[in-house]
Amino acid sequence: MKSLCVYCGSKPSNNKGFLQVANDLGAYLGKNGIRLVYGGAKVGIMAEVANACLAHGGEVLGIMPKSLVPWEVSHQGLSELKIVTSMHERKALMETESDAFVALPGGLGTLDELFEILTWKQIKLHKKPVSIINVAGFFDHLLAHLKTCKDYDLVVNEDLLQLQTFNDLDQWQKQFNF
Fold first, then answer.
1. d(Cα 121, Cα 160) in Å, to the nearest integer?
2. Phi and psi at residue 22, in whole multiples of 5°?
3. Residue 72 has what pLDDT?
4. Which of 2, 16, 63, 141 has the maximal Cβ count within 10 Å?
């Protein structure tokens, strides 16, 4: 893997564990020469992962729609920042620029990006790994809801297996043999 897309919150969290995992992931990417692709913000959990990657010699590509620049305060210290016209363009470029995808805790935007890339995998638009790191059980309710969807025959098990779930960063790293 040469490039990892990380979906995560643009807001800071009151859970220090979320920030620690973001920091640890960013540091890991930087130390191992894996380029970070993310939303381009200099705030929140997003900033934590980007700053840690940069601090450890990593390359960081931020991709931000022009409409979010005033809200999320684009990070000007990145290796590269691409300002695009729309969220659709952002998500398509993130997919093109990444070898795999992982979601950390975040809000609606994180979930939107996670489900879109997972749907693209379901309909065979890509074959790249999609995973979540379930820090402190953050995604437990979401995973339970997906099981409910399966129980009602709205999602097939094969599609659910497309989303790899890890309880911590160490477990995720072992899976990908980093």
1. 11
2. -60, -45
3. 67
4. 63
**Residue partners of 133: CB distance under 8 A and separation at least 6:** 21, 25, 102, 103, 104, 166, 167, 168, 169, 172
Give 10: exposed, middle or buried? Use CB within 10 Å, 0-12, 13-18, 19+. buried
Beta strands in 28-177 (DSSP E): 35-38, 60-65, 80-84, 100-103, 130-133, 163-166
Q: Which residue bears the tokens 């005033």?
A: 70
Cβ atoms of residues 142 and 134 within 8 Å? no
One-letter identity of residue 173:
Q
Phi, psi of 126 (to 5 degrees): -155, 165
Instruction: List CB contacts of 36: < 8 A, sequence separation 6 or more.
Output: 3, 4, 6, 26, 29, 30, 49, 50, 53, 58, 59, 60, 61
Amino acid symbol at 31:
K
H-run or E-run covering 146: helix 140-151
Alpha carbon distance 99, 3 (integer Å): 5
| Residue ranges of the chain whose pLDDT lies below 70 | 72, 177-178
Instruction: Tell if the pTM clears 0.90, that is, is over it.
Output: yes
Q: Are 56 and 23 contacting, i.e. CB atoms less than 8 angstroms apart?
A: no
Q: Measuring CA to CA, how many Å separate 11 from each of 1, 52, 56, 97?
A: 28, 16, 23, 24
